[in-house]
């Protein structure tokens, strides 16, 4: 188990699974350590390089005097990634771990591949509630807080049916250093991540609990920022938007509405590219969560593709440039143009790395989403 230094604090880390597998980094709740995930770790490690760590103030990590901040905790997570040589991770955070995940998604988006925010919050308007939780811990330690915490974490039915698991979690909670617990409580009390949500670009899954008093289903609408649509739905909407533009532009050419400005062979695809770029600006304003690489890449490849296909047609038919026909909407050129747009969209738009994308299969796409 490596120990990684972060801002003068030692962070205890545990890794398992294949070194070349996709990385899944887990972040636990307030008052627990990395062993919170022991029951899930073997299954996760079959498919992922699993990274768990004790948050500052918890487990075997250091517990310097607080208060802590969400930025401090987020930078601890980045230090762990840097210490392990990880450029990008998939993040799963429960409760406070989800709060750290929100900070990372907004402030270090290039480090987060996919984001799971489970039973978490982004802002607590009632600061007095946290003061009420912190006061008895300052005076008497974590003992008086153990039973109320178990009642918040687990339903009555679960507490009665799984006493051994409750006892294990209670023991883990009581082992948490009081100074670390208080420092993290201050970070949760003072956080306000609502205005940062628009900067989260990673595909994100938000989980709430029907019997969780802290994050019931209604809590999913708590953040003040706009609610992000799913990545797939947003990109499909952009594809349809792009197709409409192609069809309308092709129709304008077919009916001679743009003959005066398409006299040169390269003008038409360049104009089409310009139309796509204008559409990109509009879509980025209306749908800020969409991949910014989609429309520019589609526009460029569409323009080049149309020019290339029309050049092949001219050569094959022996048609001089001055006598070439207009581009029909549903004729051979029009269909090929739409097909090229789709072909360009699929590997470029779905991937978050346009330069490195070649092909994504439907199986990969379904797995990723």
How would you describe what is shown here?
By secondary structure, this protein is an alpha/beta fold. It has two domains: 3-221, Rossmann fold; 231-368, no CATH class. Helices cover 50% and strands 11% of the residues. A seven-stranded mixed sheet has the order 1-2-4-3-5-6-7. Helix 4 (127-140) runs antiparallel to helix 8 (178-190) and helix 10 (267-286) packs antiparallel against helix 11 (294-317). The longest helix has 24 residues, at 231-254.
Main attributes of the structure:
alpha/beta, 7 strands, 2 domains, 13 helices, 369 residues, Rossmann fold, single chain, seven-stranded mixed sheet
| Main beta sheet strand tally, sense and closure | 7 strands, mixed
Percent helix: 40-55%
The total count of strands amounts to 7
What is the rounded distance between the termini? 31 Å
Q: Can you list the strand order of the major beta sheet?
A: 1-2-4-3-5-6-7
At the fold tier of CATH, the topology name of the largest domain is: Rossmann fold
The averaged pLDDT comes out at 74
CATH superfamily of the largest domain: Alpha/Beta hydrolase fold, catalytic domain
Work out the count of structural domains: 2
What is the number of helices? 13
Overall outline: globular
Named CATH architecture of the largest domain: 3-Layer(aba) Sandwich
Reading the helices and strands in chain order gives EEEHEHEHEHHHHHEHHHHH
- CATH class descriptor of the largest domain: Alpha Beta
Nearest-angstrom radius of gyration? Answer: 27 Å
Label the structural class.
alpha/beta
Unreliable sequence segments: 222-230, 254-265, 312-319, 324-334, 342-369
% residues in beta strands? 5-15%
């Amino acid at each position: 188990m490596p120990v990684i230094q972060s801002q003068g604090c030692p962070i205890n880390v545990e890794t398992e699974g294949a070194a070349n597998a996709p990385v899944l980094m887990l972040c636990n709740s307030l008052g627990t350590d990395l062993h919170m995930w022991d029951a899930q770790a073997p299954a996760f490690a079959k498919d992922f390089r699993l990274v768990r760590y004790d948050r500052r103030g918890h487990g075997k990590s250091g517990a310097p005097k607080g208060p802590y901040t969400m930025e401090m905790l987020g930078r601890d997570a980045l230090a762990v990634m840097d210490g392990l040589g990880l450029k990008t991770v998939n993040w799963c955070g429960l409760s406070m771990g989800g709060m750290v995940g929100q900070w990372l998604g907004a402030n270090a988006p290039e480090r987060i591949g996919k984001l799971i925010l489970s039973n978490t919050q982004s802002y607590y308007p009632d600061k007095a509630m946290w003061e009420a939780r912190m006061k008895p811990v300052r005076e008497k330690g974590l003992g008086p807080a153990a039973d109320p915490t178990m009642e918040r974490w687990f339903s009555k039915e679960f507490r009665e049916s799984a006493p051994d698991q409750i006892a294990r979690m209670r023991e883990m909670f009581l082992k948490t250093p009081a100074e670390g617990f208080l420092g993290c409580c201050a970070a949760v009390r003072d956080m306000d991540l609502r205005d940062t949500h628009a900067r989260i670009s990673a595909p994100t899954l938000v989980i709430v609990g029907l019997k969780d008093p802290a994050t019931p289903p209604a809590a999913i609408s708590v953040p003040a920022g706009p609610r992000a649509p799913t990545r797939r739905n947003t990109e499909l909407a952009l594809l349809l938007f792009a197709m409409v533009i192609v069809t309308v532009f092709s129709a304008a050419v077919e009916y001679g509405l743009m003959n005066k400005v398409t006299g040169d062979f390269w003008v038409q695809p360049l104009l089409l590219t310009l139309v796509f770029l204008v559409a990109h600006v509009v879509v980025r304003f209306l749908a800020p969560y969409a991949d910014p690489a989609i429309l520019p890449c589609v526009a460029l490849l569409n323009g080049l593709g149309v020019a290339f296909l029309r050049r092949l047609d001219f050569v094959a038919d022996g048609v001089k440039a001055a006598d070439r026909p207009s581009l029909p909407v549903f004729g051979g050129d029009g269909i090929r143009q739409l097909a090229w747009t789709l072909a360009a969209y699929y590997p470029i738009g779905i991937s978050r790395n346009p330069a490195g994308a070649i092909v994504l299969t439907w199986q990969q796409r379904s797995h990723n989403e």
